[in-house]
Amino acid sequence: MSDTSSPWQQAAIEQANQRAAEAADTPGVAKAPGGDWQGPDLTPSRPVYDGRLGELYAIYLRHLALMLVTFGWSRFWGRTRIRRYVWNHLSVLGDRFEYRGRGRELMIGFLLALLLIAAWAGLMYVVWIYVFHEKPFASFGMFDIFSLSVFLIGFPLAYVGHYAGLRYKLSRTRWRGIRCGMAGSAWHYGVIATFLHFANASTAYLLTPVVSVNLARPRIVNARVGTQGFVFAGRAGDIYGRYLGYYFLNIVAWMVAAGAAFALIGGTIESLGFTYKDLQRLFSHPSLRTVVLVLAIAFAAYLVFGLLILPLRCWWQAYLMRYLVTHSRAGNVLFATALSTRQMWGFLVLNYLIVLLTLGIGWPWVMHRTMKLIAGQLWIYGAPTGSEIRQPTDLGPTYGEGLLDLFDVSGV
Q1: How far apart are CA 393 and CA 43, in angstroms?
Q2: What whole-number distance in Å separates Cα of residue 9 and Cα of residue 26?
Q3: What is the pLDDT of residues 359-378, one digit of tens each?
Q4: What is the tens place of the pLDDT at every residue in 146-161?
């Protein structure tokens, strides 16, 4: 279990005690056999993922081969095949998920996103000609203005695409023959996410708990399995104490790491016979080789010390994941996870090394490990009441996540 207990488990215990007391105090009411009333059935179970890495790699390698032949246009159908395999090998309460998406829906979404960018380029051209009269700034050209504007609108559009992509995938997912889905507006989510991230950056990331909880809430409460919705009882105040500890420990850790790096570099330079005056002369007129060398050293130091400090980040991320899971509920179904800092650290580090050392070819391995982690660390208490769940009337979007393709690394 988790060190963050579910609020509904506490409520169920209080309700059970209250009903037991009322039954004991009521004359003529027989006590239920087998002891006090225990509330709804909360038998624990876990998801099962029985996919095989070799089978997943076969689909992925075929996907890469077709991408080369079709100059990338087959990726929509390849991504659909990968999703279908992953979905069909994940089961909850003994029933597998189904993925009903189609490659042409993803392609249509991508083409519509390209059309949106083309319309934006046309608008920028009109502004360039009729507003700025082709000379808005001395050193800026039409291409520079367009690139800067796309970079700026890319932030909110990435959040819009993330929500729209999640809604599309859920609308094409079935469980026990029931369609899943997601309500809410992707554009509204994009506006809220942009504002919260801007406010968080302006306050040196002290609002991270507020951002995490308030962006998790619409993704959870708007999700549906048929007509069965989800409930989220999380509050940013619950996790602020843990985050502040992580925040200031992270600052101290980076200060210690930076001091150790400077001491190490300084000692190495002195052992090689260099003085600080030699370095000053070297950097007063830097060559291309000097710049490349400095950048390489800085990047290597960032990677090394980033990996060393990663356990502290994983401590916070594992706690946040446990909190979000245990404070989510679907009807009478509760969720819990015991994901630890060590498991999170090992998962992220190995995934990073797999992608880096294989130049991206190890992505199916990362996907396989992710599904194994979900199946191994997620606990489900209880089961949905089938008689209360109906097929939704909303069929979901008719095309795929085009914005997510353009402004985010959507993966699968």
Answers
A1: 31
A2: 26
A3: 889 999 999 999 999 999 99
A4: 667 777 777 788 898 8
CA 267 to mean position of chain CA atoms:
41
Query: pTM of the full predicted structure?
Result: 0.79
| Cα gap 167→181, rounded to integer Å | 6
Q: What is the sign, positive or negative, of the torsion defined by CA atoms of 317, 344, 401, 114?
A: positive
Place of tokens 């319309």: 119
Confidence label for 299 from pLDDT (cuts 50, 70 and 90): confident
Tokens of 20: 């037991």
Spell 289-319 as b/e; 16+ CB within 10 A means b: eeeeeeeeeeeebeeebeeebbbbbbbbbbb
Q: How far apart are CA 268 and CA 253, in angstroms?
A: 22
Greater confidence (40 vs 28) lies with: 40
* 162-166, 190-194, 276-280: segment of lowest average pLDDT: 276-280
